[in-house]
């Protein structure tokens, strides 16, 4: 992304909550990936007019405009599937905030639609771009896990937690929720070569949404191989499937 862009992709942001506001900020900032993107406007169910000189446009105009080539879906999770489907059918590339959908079957269907339309469908997962996750990946590479435990407190999405798992390893998964309980996670991993108890302070997470945008732009520019894209799709679908299985199991025990 170091070269001057030959073209800019017109972008509309759907939803202007926390994630949408950060996306608008990054799109308007002079970053390398932002140079390939041109913010056209935002879509919201509320009548907001303009936000920091960015104009509000209707969903119908966003879908029909030839100027809009990319949609950032930053609305509530339950609306993601419908928005993705509409924008893919309108011939737009899509970046969607996590989770892409609330079901494994719907995600499969949307990826097939993206492939049919020849468009990029990218699911954000900024938690995997945080310093904690990078540290953890580095710590476990090449080590044989004998047993481990993960304790999550507060509110986490099931699929998000699944992303922290390693296949084939015996893990104890504990969740605690209650009034006033802060969102946190604790871990204990025991390897043949030693142990890792809890997560050290590994630094401040900076510009994680921008890092995700960089990945998305690389996909737009065709800089990801088919093998890399297939592996990412397989991981996301597997985690959605596993999250559904966990929910089914928990529901059966109530």
UniProtKB/TrEMBL annotation:
Residues 9-125 form the Gfo/Idh/MocA-like oxidoreductase N-terminal domain. It is an enzyme of class 1 (oxidoreductase). Residues 170-201 form the Biliverdin reductase catalytic domain. Keywords: Acetylation, Cytoplasm, Metal-binding, NAD, NADP, Oxidoreductase, Phosphoprotein, Zinc. GO terms for biological process: heme catabolic process. Transmembrane segments: none annotated. Zn(2+) binds at residues 238-239, 250. The keyword Acetylation applies. Binds 1 zinc ion per subunit. Its EC number is 1.3.1.24. InterPro entries: Biliverdin_Rdtase_A, Biliverdin_Rdtase_cat, Gfo/Idh/MocA-like_OxRdtase_N, Gfo/Idh/MocA_Oxidoreductases, NAD(P)-bd_dom_sf. The keyword Ribosomal protein does not apply. One of its GO terms (cellular component) is cytosol. NADP(+) binds at residues 16-19, 44-46, 77-80, 98. Reduces the gamma-methene bridge of the open tetrapyrrole, biliverdin IXalpha, to bilirubin with the concomitant oxidation of a NADH or NADPH cofactor. Does not reduce bilirubin IXbeta. Uses the reactants NADH or NADPH depending on the pH; NADH is used at the acidic pH range (6-6.9) and NADPH at the alkaline range (8.5-8.7). NADPH, however, is the probable reactant in biological systems. Belongs to the Gfo/Idh/MocA family. Biliverdin reductase subfamily. Monomer. This is Biliverdin reductase A. The gene is BLVRA.
């Amino acid at each position: 992304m170091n070269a001057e862009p030959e073209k800019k992709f017109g972008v509309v942001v759907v939803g202007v909550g926390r994630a949408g506001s950060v996306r608008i900020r990054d799109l308007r900032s002079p970053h390398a990936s932002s140079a390939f993107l041109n913010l056209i406007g935002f879509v919201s169910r509320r009548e907001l007019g303009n936000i920091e000189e960015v104009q509000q446009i209707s969903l119908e105009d966003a879908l029909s405009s030839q100027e809009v080539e990319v949609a950032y879906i930053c609305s509530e999770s339950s609306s993601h599937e419908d928005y993705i489907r509409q924008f893919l059918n309108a011939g737009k590339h899509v970046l969607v905030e996590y989770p892409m959908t609330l079901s494994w079957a719907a995600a499969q269907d949307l990826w097939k639609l993206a492939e049919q339309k020849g468009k990029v469908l990218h699911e954000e997962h900024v938690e995997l771009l945080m310093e904690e996750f990078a540290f953890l990946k580095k710590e476990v590479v090449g080590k044989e896990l004998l047993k481990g435990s993960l304790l999550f407190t507060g509110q986490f999405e099931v699929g998000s937690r699944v992303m922290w798992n390693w296949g084939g390893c015996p893990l104890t998964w504990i969740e605690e929720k209650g009034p006033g309980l802060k969102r946190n996670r604790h871990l204990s991993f025991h390897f043949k070569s030693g142990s890792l108890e809890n997560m050290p302070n590994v630094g401040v997470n900076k510009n994680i949404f921008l890092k995700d945008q960089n990945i998305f732009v690389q996909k737009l520019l065709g800089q990801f191989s088919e093998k890399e894209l297939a592996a990412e799709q397989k991981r996301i679908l597997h985690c959605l499937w596993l999250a559904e299985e966990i929910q089914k199991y928990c529901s059966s025990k109530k």
